[in-house]
Hints:
By secondary structure, the chain is an alpha+beta fold. The chain is built from twelve helices and 15 strands. Helix 3 (about 45-55) crosses helix 4 (about 125-145).
Amino acid sequence: MSEKKMFQQPDWFRLDNAGILFPGQNTNKWSNIFRVSIELKEEIDPDILKQAVKNILPRFPSFNVRMRKGFFWYYLEKNPVKEPSVNPDIQNPCYRVNFKESDRFLFRVYYHGTHIAVDLFHAVSDGYGNTHFICTLVAEYLRLKGNCIPAGGFVKDINISAPAEELSDDFPKFAKSKASSPITDKHVYHAKGTKLPKHMVNITSGTMSFAAIHKLAKEKGVTVTEFFSAILMDIHCRKQLREKCKLKEVSVQIPINLRNIYPSETMRNFSICLRVKVDPKLGEYSFDELLQQVALQLRLERDEKKINAQISKHVRIEKNPFLRFLPLAVKNFALGIATLTSAEQTTSAYLTNLGPVVLPGEMKPFIEKVVLIPGPGMRTAARCGISSFNDKLVFSFANCYKENDIEREFFTTLVKMGVHVKIESNRE
Length: 428
């Protein structure tokens, strides 16, 4: 028997260094929850899907948990419920988390037509972890339908136990910098609109050719993420100028998967957010100038030493004895104040790129596309997710306002550049 099979999985987990923030931010108005969905080429059988969830759950012990509240901190405990529910999809994806609902699981599995979706509370994992979970789920679903699907890529082998490396909080493991990462972000411009009712979100997704987008980005000497970030920044800069209001900085927040920088196999959170920004008070920027600004800033901020300083600062804060043993009620109060005064205040738009989803060759013929939907913000019209599978890239907006001018302008810009885009939305 291998070492991985012999590893004794724990009955409870400390929240990781990123996840410790999310329970205290969770209210009846907002939760940090996001969705990964996979569209198949045939109708979903909910009974088989339910069995597939039951089969894979032991392979993901950090998902098989419920939130517990101690005197000093929250923690995750193994959920005694054996069978998570599987439900028809809802119109408002990424609906808020209530720790006492859904049999206390912190993820929800939905189906609709040919789609399977997993909504996950961010305290459990990030987009990388959730994508492994849903890809493994879909692979097991296809096996139960009589297909031979091996493990590989984002599909985990469910015949072995999760190794210790997958359950590790890797922030302290790699934090080694003695430098201090300063907090200098200002309050920035936000597009305004008519707020949707609580917990509702307008989702608009555009499916396009990855090769077409990659070609455009390569011609400009930038990455796909940098290319899309510059378009979002351009839209917000021009929108602010049209409003003839007091000019503020425009910023785009971009999560970075730290597994691409450090040798980590964790299925828990292991990402940090970087910001790129411009100040319209300096003058009007052309699109090419914005591309240059985004590329220069993001590549500078991705420097490993700068990133390690940011990680190390967060770990030092977590380990601070005074903060560590403050009563949880005091921590939650302070976190609530910090969320109101910073958080989205420093972000005009949010853009997370899942990157290419790699699946076993035997599984690819059954899959149409993969979609990443970030949870809606409280005041951000453009919280955006990118996912790609084969040559299909899906760009999704989660908008907390009724207006759709940012989405419309974004996809119109791509069409004018020669990119064919197929639009889908949950709007009426």
